[in-house]
Amino acid sequence: MKKDYYGKPSLKAAFVTMMYVIGMSFAWAQEPTPFACSNLAYQVSGPNTSNSTLYSYDVSTGVRTLIGDLPARVNSIGYSTLDNYIWGINVLTNQVVKIGSNAAITTHSIPNLPAPAVSAYYNVGEVFGDGYLFIYSRLATRYYVVDINPARAATYLQLVDPTNSYVLDAAPYGNTFIGTSSLDISDIVYSSSNGLFNGIIDAQSATNAYRRFTIDPVTQQVTITPTSIAGGGIQNNEKVAFGSVFIDQTPNTFYVFANTLGGFYRVNMTTNAATLISTAPTGGANNNDGASCPNSLLVASVSGTVFHDPDAGNVNNSTGNPNTVPSGLYANLIGTDGNVVAVAPVNASGFYGFDGIPTGDYHVVLSTTNGTPGTASPAPSLPAGWANTGEFNGPENTGNTTPADGISPVFTIGTNSTDINFGIQQPPVADLKAYVVPNVAFSSTPPASYPALSGYQSISASSSSLTGYLTGGSLSGSDPEDCASAGTCNTGTGTTFNIEMINGSTELYYDFGSGPVYIDVTGGPVNIPDFDVTKLVIYGITGSGTSSAPIGFSYSMTDRAGATSATATYSIQTESPMPVTLISFNIGQEGGIANLQWATSSEENSKGFEIERSENASVWTQIGFMPSLSSEAGSSSRLDYHFADPAPQRPKSYYRLKMVDVDGKYTYSQIRVVTFENSTMMYPYPNPAADELTIEGLNGSEEIKILDILGRTLIECRNDGKNKKTLNIRSLPDGAYLIKMQMPDGSSVSQKVIKKK
Q1: Contact at 8 Å (CB) between 737 and 755?
Q2: CA dist., res. 489 & res. 476, Å (int)
Q3: Of 626, 545, 623, 583, nearest to 740 (Cα)?
Q4: Buried (b) or exposed (e) across 696-711, using 16+ Cβ within 10 A?
């Protein structure tokens, strides 16, 4: 090395005068003790005129600690995991030395090991494989391998040939390189994962400076990368050499010591990128060489990836495209005290990382806030339009830890924590829907299999009258990952929609596969997976459909990751208040008489009502006529009618109303049935009622509602298994109400009741 010496301590750990005899091994006065495989890097250094000093370094901080002065000038060192000693070369005697943690050494003569032919001494060494010491001298044309494993007595402490199964070497000793004649280098490390030595060509080299190289000791092949190692100021800060090179268990990584700066750089063997880890407070070093336990961890690091993960399964990039995440995200490393230890920005591809982290327990908080070390952790947060889908400590696509809140599970740093991963995605958006339809779009006769609700008219969500949107009357929305274009999440796309709230003038039925089901949101939103627009029917109460009383509901959309959008409204207005023939049509029995009651909210050109009866709902007979109570100009107010049939059919009597206009046109009401003999009929009494209303003839599982004339629910309860139910109506104002009894099969019965004090 060409660097001036920066001084050396005076401690002498083990020194005696040595007698050198070729082919003999010598122990010094103090026997060497083994090292512990730890997170320390070891270095020998010293001036050209005296023995070397052994130091340890904390690579994460650059702090150097004196171990002791060696009783020899040493270089070409490597760490043996077989015995936890450092092996190297006494450059003054050309002998192999074994160095202990107490700075004591033993010296071994190696037969046939020649003196360096180009440089003054061997300066490159590393222990590799099952106990072999690689030796090389800068710019030389041959390298040598010494067996340092005492289990092989026949070759122990002798030159062996790695190109020939490590048999005893023969003249000409050593091996030449293939791919280059020589290398201008100062140190190497061995990667057991691929069986190659790695290093960096010296900065002072006339050719290939700063380039990474590999040596295969078995095939003799040398490979020099076409690009140089760059980053962290490595090419600006070091112009001479990298005397010490270290390796640990971090994949695809080695560390170099820059002689002049005294800086430790981490080199990525995949990208040739260098990162400055630390700078030694004691500065650079001269005539140095390094070794480390390859099973240790020199620099503890924490890293992870924020994945664009719309499917919310195992945390990974589930987009099918290169991983990209929004800007403005920070990974905050949090200690056990709840304070920020370090902060790292998340780059555009989702990666973040921390270096030089002390051992201990930590977690990471993903936030748009760049926390301040030493202060309390910021709250987890994401840029607008993004949501968390999961966190997992482990390789990509191997798990997901709930809840998805932007806070990683706690982990312990004792080894590198390289997979503290997060999943995020952009949540869906449900579309606002507002329709104006002609009055005739609604019908008192719903689609087949859907129930007819007294006082309501219906429209299918698939009706051609629901226009103005590419998706027609379908619930719809968009999701950046599942269906990015506006409205493309809709019927038939596997999308889940949720009915959140329903207007008081509206009722909904949906066929989930076993027939139409009443949508009841009193217990919370109702989810409709794999939505099909043809299965949704919307009912509007008579007189609604105006801007002040629209028919409609609110809904949301849930994407495949389980994220739910904000709610959106779905409203339908008619061109005029929805034409209604009947507000109600109910039948009761009393003393064997069938009592028919019905009401209208508006009538125009109405002549009256023919009352028809049947015993089988197929053949009908007119049994009476009720003239319209409206004036010739029509009526826009409620009109109530009553008809008594003293001779109903038994056991069942069916009734319908034929609503006849003055011009002879007519329409039919829904069919009502009353049962006599042993059957019971649900009916309320007394009617009118003052404070309490009792309903007889229940079977134990009905849902009971009392509605006002606008269809608003005022009282709602469920029968608790009895055949009658008494309701407290004391708080209701005097007037007419509709009592509606909903059966488990979806059918319902409604009757008018009067509240009167």
Answers
A1: yes
A2: 5
A3: 583
A4: ebbeeebbbbbbebeb
Q: For tokens 């005076």, what's the residue?
A: 10
Tokens found for residue 332: 């905050």
In terms of phi and psi (left: phi > 0; alpha: psi -120 to 50; beta: otherwise), the region of 464 is alpha
Note whether 232 and 355 are within 8 A (CB): no
Across 312-398, the runs of DSSP E, i.e. the strands, are 330-334, 340-345, 351-355, 360-367, 387-393
The owner of tokens 């060696």 is: 70
Distance of CA 634 to the CA centre of its chain: 64
Give yes or no for a cis peptide into 627 (omega within 30° of 0): no
Asked if 77 contacts 64 with a C-beta cutoff of 8 angstroms, the reply is no
Residue-wise pLDDT tens digits, 703-756: 899 988 778 889 999 888 887 889 999 999 998 888 888 877 666 777 788 888
Bridge partners (DSSP) of residue 89 are 75, 96
- The answer to which of 20-34, 100-114, 552-566 has the lowest mean pLDDT is 20-34
CA dihedral 77, 205, 1, 294 (to 10 degrees): -20
Q: Which domains does the chain have, with CATH numbers?
A: 25-292 (2.120.10), 307-425 (2.60.40.10), 429-574 (2.60.40), 581-679 (2.60.40.10), 682-757 (2.60.40.1930)
**Three-state secondary structure call for residue 431:** coil
Residue type, 278: S
Structure tokens at 302: 């924490």
| Cβ partners under 8 Å of residue 403, min gap 6 | none
